[in-house]
């Protein structure tokens, strides 16, 4: 439901209640951390390089987009949304795969991101953890210390030194984009929040997990986060059910950190989803939608917030084994930019809000005048006023926030050389149109609005566009009244004294198509608003405008279109040429509204994708471990007898079968236990295992080559006794094989995070066998030993490009069957649609060549059949594990894979592992699997590099044989 614009008499009543009194006296209390004046703050806001700044930020995790040459795409999409900052988590586990190794290469090297941010004009908030939460395995804590949490402080020193070095050299004081550094994230076990990292001079801050007063004085600045709707499992939510808006934020900040800007290092921008949700991210997007953005983000403003970071701006993909125990592959998050990097309606709403903030700096410094809930019945109105300029902002919403709308009305302020008395239409931006001011406002089509300007004498009004405008001169005020029609209407006002003013009036949909790229100024921060860049253009039409440059009368634009597009440009009085993506637009004309108009033509290029349904696939069984003569390839003895885990084994002796103790922290695990049998020993009546792998894990158990069955009832630990008959036993050595998945580590959990001094128990949840025994046999006739396979070479994994979370311990993974360049020519021809025919594990490989048109951004996804089946499958694309499908839990069946992982101009290798847990036809095959395009955009960031090391490099070199 839309909030009807305020009737003007009500605005007058509000306004007259608290007439502007200004300038009020206020003592400047600007402070810094004593280390740098480049980033300072007072009680109103931060200052960057001396400029009062409203930090309007979005969260992006580069490691969730494992193609460094695409990072600039997200930066540009953030800049085009009007953001001035991006906040980033680092990932300790990726960076520090084993004790002593700090890997700052490839996807761990954020330098290309810092460079792109700097060039595009975006500040950066660095958040290296060490603990980050973030729905990634153990919140980013590497597996090598999960088993012994007491050494936490020592353990992060190497990582910390490494990333801090990278951060330090990219600080704003060094000419880089980093303005703030967060220390830790909601993990209060004392890893040195008080220690200023060596070389860091920008302010440090903490992110409290709510209004909990944690670590208030431990860093320079205190902030907390809020997720008014659930931060996880949004796919199960009812998107029509809303929660109320908190009204405690302002008073909490004032009481907790007086003198500091009100800073949300994270505010809900979408939501994470979990395995088994019913609606997936479609539901999340509906729940945390544009109405949510309007109501809740405006409530932040009403709370005096001038630094806000929306988590996430681009969620991306928690590929391979990066997810935590409950998260699936997609981290789309219902974010403004979706997982395929497409901009959504939430990007548009964020842009409307951000351009307002970027354009009207009076808003960076306001006092609360009052919260009024009575003047207009049922409305909750927060009146803010700039104490120096006297301008007022009234933030409107319903008292009942579940009526989903909110907007801001401004009064009494100056833009350029003009003065706005009031406007019931929302302000978007203003620009200097070659010497005269143009104010841009928007509202809902069909509703009535009123605006008044300070203009003396008789005023000439001309309006071009669909909306009928009425003007009334009451010297010295000129009032516009209109009922808004769809589209854009340009109003020209000329006062008696020659003063000219333009007002561009757009309905909501028309406003969302507007772009205001920056034009670079001079100096080191040429593209930064507030430092050097200007915004003399307003452009409508294209799907995306990334960038612009204006050279005299020559305009160059860069962006994306998905159809033939009419572009309209407000700005330069004279323009001799317009280029779009470096190609001159031939048909430049000037419209009655004075815009420069041209057509960007688009013709759908041929996008030829392979039909994976009819492709040649090659197959090989991937469970030789159940064979009596299995050679033990890449398995190690699991012979440790002690553990420091706070979760001790339930039973089973003497070996501790916890994978992390053996250096395996991700992906499938294969356990192989041996026991002896002959005519003199009692036959076991059952094999008992208690496998642990987090809520959605599965295990399959074999006795020799006989499948005993699955163990996946969606408990953290499943205790199963599988009956055994004597005919299944061999004379001599017998083997129990348990295949299970390691679903990623748990997060620290709220109970731990909010209890200072608490231990992160959940980080130590074991992945492995917490209990094992042969039922019917006494203690002396149990297992004689166990071996274990995890990812190839464990913490010393050889893949320095795709890193430690990429692979698990399936035989095919250990052998490198998922890698490009593996020679499968001797393999049987068989498709995943035919499948295994029985429970077990197999690998299916196919290759194809892509030759997609150059100069386009064409997001592609691999789509599994969504039918339910008792199987699990991993998708490997050119060696990158880009998806995990659990066909009896879901919800994900479509897996976006970006250019860069895919080679759009060369050969690609796609591999599916299929782990069939059930016996039915639906369980032992993948009914269908396709590659589809999600769109075709002429444009994109271009120059996308692939980096896909092959089998020779990652296996051949290590002496692994082809078979
Ligand atoms: C907040 C975390 O800081 C962030 O890393 C992420 O996990 C987010 O939750 C949920 O997606 S913690 C907040 C819910 C208290």
TrEMBL record:
What's a GO biological-process term for it?
Answer: carbohydrate metabolic process
Source species? Mycena rosella
* Protein's UniProt keywords contain Coiled coil: no
User: Which EC number(s) does UniProt give?
Assistant: 3.2.1.23
Q: What name does UniProt use for this protein?
A: Beta-galactosidase
Its family? Belongs to the glycosyl hydrolase 35 family.
State the SMART domains in the record: BetaGal_dom2 (SM01029)
Give every Beta-galactosidase domain span.
Answer: 362-514
Q: Which GO MF terms are attached to this record? A: beta-galactosidase activity
Q: Which reaction does it catalyse?
A: Hydrolysis of terminal non-reducing beta-D-galactose residues in beta-D-galactosides
